[in-house]
Specification:
alpha/beta, 916 residues, binds magnesium ion, single chain, binds adenosine-5'-diphosphate, 7-stranded mixed beta sheet, binds aspartic acid, amino-acid biosynthesis, metal-binding, elongated
Length: 916
C-alpha cells in the first residue's frame, strides 16, 4: 500500500496554535520525495504515534523518513495515466446518507448498482459528526473538560458503526486506525485546552476526521462486496488557497497534478474520497468550510471531467423554497447553473454555493437526489433549463425563493454624497478593511444614500469603521448619518426567465404588500436572475410563504380567529367545517381556524382547530379568555401569511380593537355593527386606515345579513353613481311583525308569535326600540358619504313609554297587550286609505339626514308585498331614479348572517390572490 510521507514542519508557527511557552520541534523529511506538512506547533509529536501511522500508511501521514513502498510506487509512476471524461460518474453522499451503519450499506448498494465504467464517490462525515468535532474544539478552547467525554461519544459512534458493518481484518484495521486517530485528537485537544486558543488550521485538521472515518468505512463495505475500490484522503489531492473571507479557492492545476500522481499510485475503478477536506499549497490540512462536501464533489467532477455529479441527500431535490419553511414547496425538476447558484447563495442549503462554478466550466450536469426515495427523479442542474421536463411547467418566471437570516442593514446617507466620485468605493473599502461580507447593495439614483446588508455579527465593526472613515464628512454635515437597522432577513426570488419578463417584481411586491409586509430595501442585478428584498426578520417566513403561494398558485392560506361562538359564530364554524375541503381542493383556499374565543374561555391551536369537534374541544381544552393573547396567537404564527379576525359578537369593546388589529395587518370581518355605527371620528379613522393599507375590513353582514347591500352600495358609488336615497325594511323581526299584523291578531299576539318563532331578540324590546335599525341606517349613511352620528338619526321606538323601564322581557310581554289598541288604530287608519304599516329606515342623502320610523305605504308599493322576515332595500340614485334598485330577501337569522360573514372571508381570500 502506498505510504504517503510528509515532513512535519513546526516552524510555521503563525498558522497554528499560538503559544510561545510550548516547545518547538521540527521534523524534516530525510527523503527528497517526502511531502512537507506542517503540524500544529505545540503538538507533542511523540504522542502522534508516527511509527504506527507509517506502517499503516493509509491516511494523512507524518513520517520522518521515506519508505520502501513509497519508492516502489514512484517507480510505477507515469505508467498508469488518469483516464478522464464521460466514463466517470461522481456521486456525493451527504451526512444523513451515511448517518447509520444501515445507511452506509445502502450507499454501498447504490455505488455497486451504478453501472458507470468508473466511479468517484465523495462522502461527508456521518450526520452530526462535524458538529460534534467543532463542539470538541469549542469545549477544549474554553477549557471545558467535557471535551473528553464528547470525544468518547465520537469514538463510540464510529466504533459501533464499524462493529455493525465490518468484521475480521477489516474491522481490526479500521478500529486500530480509529483509536489511533482518537488518541491523537485527544492529545491535540489537550493542547488546545492548555493554550485556551485554537487557530483555524488546527481546527480544520481536527474537524476533518469525520470524513476520514466515513470514507474508510464505506470503502471497506464496498470492498466487502467484492469490488476493487480505493479510498482517497483528499488532503493528498485537493489543493486550495485560503481567501480572506472564510472561503478557499481550488488550485485546479496543482490539484490535477496531484490527482494524476495519486491515481498512478492507486489505479482503481471505484474511488471513495473524503469530502470537505483539502490541503493548502503548503500542505497544511484545511477544509472547504461548512457544508463543503458538495464543493469537493464538484471539484472532483471537474478534475475527472466526469459525465455527471450526483448529489445524494435527504430531500427529493431542490425545492421552490426551503421545504422546512414552506410545506407546499414543489420540487424543481430542472435548474440552470445560474439559478442553482443564486438559490444556494441565498440560503438554500441543499447545495453549497460554490458547487456550481467547477462543473459549469465543463458543462457537467449536477443531479440532486434523495437517498431515501430512489423513485424520485431529483433535480437536474445544467446549462440551459429552458426545455420542459416531463410536462413540468417551466413558464413561471420565478423558479424558487430562498432566505438569509441574521442580517443588518447599514444606511449611509447625506446630501454631500450625490455626484461625488469615490463615495461608494470609500464605503466599501472601509467595510472590506473590517473583513465584513456585503450581501446586498442598493443605491438610489439620487445618490443620496447607499444601503447594504451585512451579517448581523459584523455590523458593529462595519458601523464603527464607517463612522471613523467618514468622521470629517459627518462633522461637516456632508453625510447626515450612518444608520444600522438590525434584525433583518433577505428574501430572494430566483429565476432565469425573470430576465426581460415584465411584471415579476410587481407581482412579488404586491404579494408582500397583501401580506402586510414592509420592504426595507430592494436590489435587482441587471442579469435579472434575482430580485432581493430585505424584510424584518420576524416577517421573513410569512413573506416567503406569501410570495411562494403567489407564484406557485398554491393555496391562499388564512389564519382565522373567531370571536363570539354564539349563534352566528357557531353557525359560521359549522359552515366552515362543511365547506373547508371543497375550498381547499377546488379553490385553493385554506382557511385555518387557529383560535375561537368567547367571553370566558378560548381555544387556541397551532395548526388549526378540528371544526368537527370545536365546541367539545372548547369545553375540554379551553383556557381563560384573553383577547390580546388570542389575537397574538392567531397572528403570531409565522407560517401563515394572512390573518383575519372574525368578530361575531355585538360587543363595542371588541369593535374598539379593530383599528389596532388593522394597524398590525390583521384583516377584520364582522357582522358587529358597533364599530361602524359608533363615534364618527373613530369610524372615519378606521375607514381611512383601511383605504391606506392592504389590510381589509369587511362588514357586509352588518346590514341585511347575507344580502348584498353594502357591496351593491359600493358598486354604485365606485362606478360614479350618486346616491339620492336609501329606504328599506332593515329589521327581519319588524318585517315579520308588520307583514303578519294584518288585523287577524293583535299587535302583542304577533310579537309573541315572532318571539316564539325565534325571530326576535330574547327581549323583543331590543327589536321594537328601533336602535338596531338606527345603526344600520347610520352605517349606510356613512357608507354613502354622510358624516352623521347615531344621535343625529331620529328613531321612533315601538316600545310604549310606560314599558321601557319594565324589568324583565316576560313582564314586558305580559303588559304589552294593554297598548294593543293604539297600534290597532294606526293599522286601521292605514287600511282605510289602502295602505299598510311598515317600520323603515331612510337615508336622505340629498338633505344629509336619516330617520327610522313607522310609515304607511300603498298596498301596491314593493314594501307592502313582503312576506316572512324578508328585508327590502331600495336605492334611489341618479341612475336608478325612476325605478329604484331593489335588493330583497331574508335579512335575518343565523344561517344567512353567518353566510354573509363567510362570503366576506372568501372575498378576502380572493383579494389576497386566490383564483376567482
Ligand atoms: P447534506 O448533509 O446531504 O449535504 P444538507 O442538510 O446540507 O444535506 O442539505 C439538505 C437540506 O437542505 C434539506 O434537508 C432541506 O431541509 C434544506 N433545504 C433548504 N432549502 C432547500 C431547497 N430550496 N430545496 C431543498 N432543500 C432545501
Ligand atoms: N461534514 C461537513 C459539514 O458538516 C461537510 C459536509 O457535510 O458537507 O460541514
Ligand atoms: Mg450539504
Amino acid at each position: 500500500m502506498l505510504m504517503a510521507a510528509f515532513s512535519a514542519t513546526i516552524s510555521d508557527s503563525s498558522r497554528f496554535l499560538s503559544s510561545t511557552s510550548l516547545p518547538k520541534r521540527k521534523i524534516s523529511a530525510s527523503s527528497p520525495r517526502c511531502r512537507s506538512f506542517s503540524l500544529p506547533k505545540p503538538f507533542p509529536l511523540s504522542r502522534l504515534n508516527i511509527g504506527s501511522r507509517l506502517e499503516r500508511g493509509k491516511s494523512f501521514t507524518i513520517c520522518a523518513q521515506a519508505s520502501v513502498s513509497d519508492i516502489s510506487v514512484e517507480k510505477s509512476m507515469g505508467k498508469v495515466n488518469l483516464p478522464k471524461g464521460d466514463m466517470w460518474a461522481v456521486h456525493k453522499f451527504g451526512g444523513t446518507c451515511v448517518g447509520t451503519s444501515q445507511r452506509i450499506k445502502n450507499v454501498a448498494d447504490i455505488i455497486i448498482s451504478d453501472d458507470s465504467e468508473r466511479k468517484l464517490v465523495v462522502v461527508s462525515a456521518m450526520s452530526k459528526v462535524t458538529d460534534m468535532m467543532y463542539d470538541l474544539i469549542n469545549k477544549a478552547q474554553s477549557r471545558d473538560d467535557s471535551y473528553i467525554s464528547s470525544l468518547d461519544a465520537v469514538l463510540e459512534k464510529h466504533n459501533s458503526t464499524a462493529l455493525d458493518l465490518l468484521d475480521g481484518d477489516d474491522l481490526a484495521s479500521f478500529l486500530s486506525q480509529l483509536h489511533h486517530d482518537v488518541s491523537n485528537l485527544k492529545a491535540m485537544l489537550r493542547a488546545i485546552y492548555i493554550a485556551g486558543h485554537v487557530t483555524e488550521s488546527f481546527s480544520d485538521f481536527v474537524v476533518g476526521h469525520g470524513e476520514l472515518w466515513s470514507a474508510q468505512m464505506l470503502s471497506y463495505v464496498v470492498r466487502k462486496n467484492g469490488l476493487d475500490c480505493k479510498w482517497m484522503d483528499t488532503r493528498e489531492v485537493l489543493i486550495v488557497n485560503p481567501t480572506s473571507s472564510n472561503q478557499v479557492d481550488p488550485d485546479f492545476l496543482e490539484s490535477e497534478r496531484k490527482l494524476e500522481k495519486w491515481f498512478s499510485q492507486n489505479p482503481s475503478k471505484i474511488i471513495i474520497a473524503t469530502g470537505f477536506i483539502a490541503s493548502t499549497p503548503q500542505n497544511i490540512p484545511t477544509t472547504l468550510k461548512r457544508d463543503g462536501s458538495d464543493f469537493s464533489a464538484a471539484i472532483m467532477g471537474a478534475l475527472f471531467r466526469a459525465r455527471q455529479v450526483t448529489i445524494w441527500t435527504d430531500v427529493d431535490g431542490v425545492y421552490s423554497a426551503d421545504p422546512r419553511k414552506v410545506s407546499e414547496a414543489v420540487i424543481l425538476r430542472k435548474l440552470s447553473y445560474q439559478e442553482a447558484w443564486e438559490m444556494s447563495y441565498f440560503g438554500a442549503n441543499v447545495l453549497h454555493p460554490r458547487t456550481i462554478i467547477p462543473v459549469m466550466r465543463y458543462d457537467i450536469p449536477i443531479v440532486i437526489r434523495n437517498i431515501f426515495n430512489l423513485s424520485a427523479p431529483g433535480t437536474k442542474i445544467c446549462r440551459s433549463a429552458s426545455e420542459d421536463v416531463d410536462g413540468q411547467n417551466l413558464d413561471s418566471p420565478v423558479k424558487g425563493f430562498a432566505t438569509i437570516d441574521n442580517l443588518a442593514l447599514v444606511n449611509v446617507e447625506g446630501t454631500g454624497m450625490a455626484g461625488v466620485p469615490g463615495t461608494a468605493s470609500a464605503i466599501f473599502s472601509a467595510v472590506k478593511d473590517v473583513g465584513a461580507n456585503v450581501i446586498m447593495i442598493s443605491q438610489a439614483s439620487s445618490e443620496h444614500s447607499v444601503c447594504f446588508a451585512v451579517p448581523e455579527k459584523e455590523v458593529k465593526a462595519v458601523a464603527e469603521a464607517l463612522q471613523s472613515r467618514f468622521r470629517q464628512a459627518l462633522d461637516a454635515g456632508r453625510l447626515s448619518q450612518v444608520a444600522v437597522i438590525p434584525n433583518c432577513s433577505i428574501l430572494a426570488a430566483v429565476g432565469q426567465k425573470m430576465a426581460s419578463t415584465p411584471g415579476v417584481s410587481a407581482t412579488l411586491f404586491n404579494a408582500l404588500a397583501k401580506a402586510n409586509i414592509n420592504i426595507r430595501a430592494i436590489a435587482q442585478g441587471c442579469s435579472e436572475y434575482n430580485i432581493t428584498v430585505v424584510v424584518k426578520r420576524e416577517d421573513c417566513i410569512r413573506a416567503l410563504r406569501a410570495v411562494h403561494s403567489r407564484f406557485y398558485l398554491s393555496r391562499t392560506t388564512i389564519a382565522i380567529g373567531i370571536i363570539g361562538p354564539g349563534l352566528i359564530g357557531a353557525t359560521l364554524l359549522d359552515q366552515l367545517r362543511d365547506q373547508a375541503a371543497v375550498l381547499k381542493e377546488e379553490f385553493n383556499i385554506d382557511l385555518r381556524v387557529m383560535g375561537i374565543t368567547g367571553s370566558r374561555t378560548m381555544l387556541l391551536s397551532e395548526v388549526g382547530i378540528d371544526l368537527s369537534r370545536w365546541s367539545e374541544l372548547l369545553k375540554q381544552k379551553g383556557q381563560v379568555a384573553d383577547l390580546e393573547k388570542f389575537t397574538q396567537h392567531v397572528h403570531g404564527n409565522h407560517f401563515i401569511p394572512n390573518t383575519a379576525v372574525v368578530d361575531c359578537t355585538a360587543d363595542s369593546n371588541v369593535a374598539s380593537c379593530y383599528h389596532d388589529w388593522l394597524c398590525k395587518g390583521i384583516h377584520v370581518i364582522t357582522p358587529n355593527k358597533k364599530a361602524n355605527s359608533g363615534p364618527l371620528d373613530k369610524y372615519l379613522k378606521l375607514r381611512a386606515l383601511q383605504r391606506q393599507s392592504y389590510t381589509h375590513y369587511f362588514y357586509e353582514a352588518t346590514v341585511g345579513a347575507g344580502l348584498p347591500i353594502i357591496s351593491t352600495l359600493r358598486g354604485l358609488l365606485e362606478t360614479g353613481d350618486r346616491i339620492l336615497r336609501i329606504e328599506g325594511i332593515f329589521s327581519g323581526t319588524l318585517s315579520y311583525i308588520f307583514n303578519n299584523f294584518t288585523g287577524t291578531r293583535t299587535f302583542s299576539e304577533v310579537v309573541a308569535e315572532a318571539k316564539e318563532a325565534g325571530y326576535t331578540e330574547p327581549d323583543p324590546r331590543d327589536d321594537l326600540s328601533g336602535t338596531d335599525v338606527g345603526r344600520k341606517v347610520i352605517i349606510l349613511a356613512r357608507e354613502s358619504g354622510l358624516k352623521l352620528e347615531l344621535s343625529d338619526i331620529p328613531v321612533q321606538t315601538l316600545v310604549p313609554e310606560p314599558l321601557r323601564a319594565t324589568e324583565s322581557a316576560e313582564d314586558f310581554m305580559k303588559q304589552l297587550p294593554q297598548f294593543d289598541t293604539d297600534m290597532a288604530k294606526e293599522r286601521q287608519d292605514a287600511e282605510e286609505s289602502g295602505e299598510v304599516l311598515r317600520y323603515v329606515g331612510v337615508v336622505d342623502a340629498i338633505n344629509q339626514k336619516g330617520v327610522v320610523e313607522l310609515r304607511r305605504y300603498s298596498k301596491s308599493h314593493p314594501f307592502a308585498q313582503l312576506s316572512g322576515s324578508d328585508n327590502i332595500i331600495a336605492f334611489t340614485t341618479t341612475r336608478y331614479k325612476e325605478q329604484p334598485l331593489i335588493v330583497r330577501g331574508p335579512g335575518a337569522g343565523a344561517q344567512v348572517t353567518a353566510g354573509g360573514v363567510f362570503s366576506d372571508i372568501l372575498r378576502l381570500a380572493s383579494y389576497l390572490g386566490a383564483p376567482s
